[in-house]
């Protein structure tokens, strides 16, 4: 097997498309040309993407909200309870029914970031970012979120962590 690092790789994480820069490992069999793609720390990537998306000023789609909930490893009922929502309301939001006001969405984003920020070492999080957001309507097509692996210091050692490639 021959290992290389792909300069760029797009992946749908189940609601949010990401473009991974210089991070994805490609293993290619020299005998049969079979290829296998390996994304390092997929769980960490999902958490970093969820945090990055929560900080972006464009309205969340139902699929993105569902992705964020699943990244937090919560059922609809658990997530609704944590967000102080009726489960039916969350279900409607995840199915793109209108009804989320800007205030509700910003509060949801604050809560999501509060759950994630300690696990996402490389993405800068400041609650003031969400407090000052003016949510714009969602534009299609939505460009992939670009992410890259970086080295960060965590408890006196350097570790890999996912960061947004371009803001």
Automatic annotation (TrEMBL):
PROSITE patterns reported for this sequence: HTH_CROC1
Annotated InterPro entries: Cro/C1-type_HTH (IPR001387), Lambda_DNA-bd_dom_sf (IPR010982)
Alphabetized Pfam families for the sequence: HTH_3
Superkingdom as given in the UniProt entry: Bacteria
Domain HTH cro/C1-type: 65-96
Gene Ontology molecular-function annotations: DNA binding
Protein name: Helix-turn-helix domain-containing protein
Lineage: Bacteria, Pseudomonadati, Pseudomonadota, Alphaproteobacteria, Hyphomicrobiales
